[in-house]
Amino acid sequence: MKLKKVFFIVIAITIIPLLLFAKDLYKLCGYSVLTVTKIQTNDLIQRDLDSRFLKINISGFVGLKSKQIEYICAEKADCLNSWKTLDSSVNWIAYNGIIDATVGRNILWISSKSENFKPPLVHEPIVFDIGEIFIVAGQSNACGYDKKFYASKEGKVKYGFYGNRNIVWKECIDPYKENWGGAVWPQLGDSLSKKMNAPIGFINLAKPGSNIGQWIKDSNYLNEVIDCIKMLGKNKCRAILWHQGESDQNTSPDLYRTTLKESIDYCNKKIGAQIPWLVSCASYHNGWFSEKIAVSQRSLWDERIVYPGPNSDSLGNEFRYDRTHFNEKGTHELAKMWQKCIENAFLKTNNYK
Question: What is the Cβ-side half-sphere exposure of residue 189, based on CA atoms within 13 angstroms?
Answer without folding.
Answer: 30
